[in-house]
């Protein structure tokens, strides 16, 4: 664990599940450069550890997942600095492209601006009744900068995304569920348990198959249908050569659980 994050491998006894908690509750877990750097390091460690197979990211405290990029940090920056540092580029690229293992966002409160964008980088979102989603950057004279205009639109469609970006309004958990932004909504005190249990279910799957399933679903956002279908078939054919495919099918026929080798 680090200054602004709590990182717990095998969290609460869930084998293979890493829990990463954003931990700046007084600033509503606003994402300053320290949090973002520590998050990249935490994801790299998770990705590198063969014993950790699914991660959950959540926010500490009752109020927020993350209330956005840190406005007090951004107010000091001029346009040239944002541009020359290519602000947020390594960050959005690192997490989405380099983390091949599955991870879940457990949204326990405000997920605004960069917080909403971080949640949408996850493979899926589980929300509590307290969750609020929004891209309020327009009110600050800016616009989403960590993927919000693209990922929100892909997730919930043009009308709702456009309205949210243009008005900066928040969407509550139930609306987010109706809009397919989140998988499901739970009472606040059941959120983390459900997210960890879901992650444990994924962590108990054959690990190569988990990575392959994630890769395939993500390809649907990047390719034509024909290319995606070819990619799906090729990955399926590669998986068919794995030891875990042999074990998985044998275990089914023999009516027992599988013992995964991860290859
Ligand atoms: C820095 C923040 C913050 C943020 C909240 N805080 N959000 N600090 N950056 N994004 C701090 C407040 O300053 C305050 O600290 C403390 O957290 C508690 O917040 P309050 O506002 O007092 O709480 P409340 O009245 O309950 O209101 C909650 C809220 C509001 C509705 C979530 O805090 C809010 O609107 N926050 C900003 C949301 C936002 O605009 N996010 C988008 C950021 S832009 P102090 O010390 O003052 O008491 C962004 C851009 C990404 O993410 C890409 C750009 C390139």
UniProtKB/TrEMBL annotation:
<dbReference type="InterPro" id="IPR018376">
    <property type="entry name" value="Enoyl-CoA_hyd/isom_CS"/>
</dbReference>
<dbReference type="InterPro" id="IPR029045">
    <property type="entry name" value="ClpP/crotonase-like_dom_sf"/>
</dbReference>
<dbReference type="InterPro" id="IPR001753">
    <property type="entry name" value="Enoyl-CoA_hydra/iso"/>
</dbReference>
<comment type="similarity">
    <text>Belongs to the enoyl-CoA hydratase/isomerase family.</text>
</comment>
<dbReference type="InterPro" id="IPR014748">
    <property type="entry name" value="Enoyl-CoA_hydra_C"/>
</dbReference>
<keyword id="KW-0456">Lyase</keyword>
<protein>
    <submittedName>
        <fullName>Enoyl-CoA hydratase-related protein</fullName>
    </submittedName>
</protein>
<dbReference type="Pfam" id="PF00378">
    <property type="entry name" value="ECH_1"/>
</dbReference>
């Amino acid at each position: 664990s680090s200054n602004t994050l709590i990182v717990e491998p095998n969290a609460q006894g869930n084998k293979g599940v890493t829990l990463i908690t954003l931990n700046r509750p007084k600033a509503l877990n606003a994402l300053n450069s320290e949090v973002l750097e520590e998050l990249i390091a935490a994801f790299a460690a998770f990705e590198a550890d063969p014993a950790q197979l699914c991660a959950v990211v959540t926010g500490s405290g009752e109020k927020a997942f993350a209330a956005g990029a840190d406005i007090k940090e951004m107010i000091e920056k001029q346009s040239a600095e944002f541009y020359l540092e290519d602000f947020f580029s390594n960050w959005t690229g690192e997490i989405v492209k380099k983390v091949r293992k599955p991870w879940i966002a457990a949204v326990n409160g405000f997920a605004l601006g960069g917080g909403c964008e971080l949640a949408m980088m996850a493979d899926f979102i589980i929300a509590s009744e307290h969750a609020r989603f929004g891209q309020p950057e327009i009110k600050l004279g800016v616009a989403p900068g960590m993927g919000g205009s693209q990922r929100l639109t892909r997730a919930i469609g043009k009308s709702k995304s456009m309205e949210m970006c243009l008005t900066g309004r928040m969407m509550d958990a139930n609306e987010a569920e109706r809009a397919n932004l989140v998988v499901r909504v739970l009472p606040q005190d059941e959120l983390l348990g459900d997210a960890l249990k879901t992650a444990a279910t994924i962590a108990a799957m054959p690990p190569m198959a988990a990575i392959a399933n994630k890769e395939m679903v993500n390809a649907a956002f990047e390719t034509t249908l024909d290319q995606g279908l070819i990619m799906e078939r090729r990955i399926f054919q590669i998986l068919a050569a794995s030891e875990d495919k042999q074990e998985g099918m044998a275990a089914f026929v023999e009516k027992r659980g599988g013992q995964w080798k991860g290859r």
